Amino acid sequence: MINTTNSTIQDQLYNERLFAEIAAASAASDYDGGFPAHEFALLRASGLLTITLPGQALCYDKASTPGLLQLLKNIGKSSLPVGRIYEGHINALLLIASFGSQDQKSRWFEDAGANLFGVWNTQDAGGLEIEDTGNGRYRLTGSKTFCSGAGWIGRPLVTGKLISPEKSGWQMCIIPTETVKPILADSSFWKPLGMQASASYRMDLTGIEIGEQDLLGLPDDYYRQPLFGSGALRFAAVQLGGAEAVLEETHRLLNDFKRTEDPFQQSRIAEISYLIETGNLWLNQAGELYDRWLHMPGSAEKLIAYANMTRTIIEDACLRSMQLAERSVGSRGLMRPGILERMHRDLTTYLRQPAPDAIQAYVGKYVLDQQNTTSLWT
Ligand SMILES: Cc1cc2nc3c(=O)[nH]c(=O)nc-3n(C[C@H](O)[C@H](O)[C@H](O)COP(=O)(O)OP(=O)(O)OC[C@H]3O[C@@H](n4cnc5c(N)ncnc54)[C@H](O)[C@@H]3O)c2cc1C
């Protein structure tokens, strides 16, 4: 059991030794077909796979979102692929906490220490169907894409179109992988610029049969707001961690190159520093507002707009920081196996998240829909 005293929480969120070990291991996982197995063994041993469960340090009903975002950022700084997969695990546990029955919560929370969870929602034209075959049984047909963690995920939460005479909509289910037909992994889908170690393959679930106890929530619960829209804060936190790693490595290289006295270098480092601090200020504020607004009647759209702004600001801060870092260290600093070369590829890839234009437009529409702009975010 994790002790939830303040000092212990701080130790877990800022476990520098653990994060350094993950960072040190991450170069070895960076290849086509790689997966950060050692890094997840470290996370499991540290207790961080269960830190959001009831009674634990960052339990969801404890208004602990700023702490969770700090943790995600710190893991992302060590390794963006590890941050991506860990965020999926945390997201699945949040969805179970929000929509699971008491029985399901007990069963899946019990599994969380030993199994990795993931959320596989993205799909291409084919998509996934969950067909009600009667007597509480369901057959899956089709595949999901960008399935981070692929076959290393023991409890994938997948979404699909429910085909049933009684109900319809977008249904979540959690696959008990050891008791069903194997999910077919297609790694040929995953030839990205970066984030190789996130193992975000296409997964074919055709022929898998599950029971009523494996369905999570009601159809369309997955998109229930503001939970869905505000989830962008978690991946933005991981991304900001990547930018912090870029700053740290640029700082190290400039010292190595003995180029710290140059005013242009000082100016660029200054800009990266305040961009990242801006991201941190947004993230902390957004975490506090999330805890205040999530269950406050009438605050759903405001929370989504605030999360969208945070995500956009952090994306811009990451992109600009990478550009400034490149100019600062030059080609010598971007050589393999240097950290900056990998972080650059990983962050460029991981910054591509769904519908960036639509989320910015949402903010504009939200603001224009208000009577005036005097108290937008109070
Ligand atoms: C490393 C990594 C891991 C991932 N892991 C997972 C995972 O575990 N589970 C999961 O479910 N997903 C995962 N994803 C998928 C991710 O959530 C996004 O769905 C995916 O990255 C889509 O990115 P995109 O740039 O192709 O987005 P798009 O939404 O296609 O955006 C590309 C551009 O097109 C614009 N655009 C979008 N829609 C339209 C439109 N209708 N008309 C005109 N323009 C449009 C956008 O604004 C943007 O400018 C992962 C992605 C990455 C990169």
TrEMBL record:
It comes from the Bacteria. Keywords: FAD, Flavoprotein, Oxidoreductase. Residues 228-348 form the Acyl-CoA dehydrogenase/oxidase C-terminal domain. Residues 21-110 form the Acyl-CoA dehydrogenase/oxidase N-terminal domain. The keyword Flavoprotein applies. Its cofactor is FAD. Pfam families: Acyl-CoA_dh_1, Acyl-CoA_dh_N. Belongs to the acyl-CoA dehydrogenase family. This is Acyl-CoA dehydrogenase family protein. The lineage of its organism: Bacteria, Pseudomonadati, Bacteroidota, Cytophagia, Cytophagales.
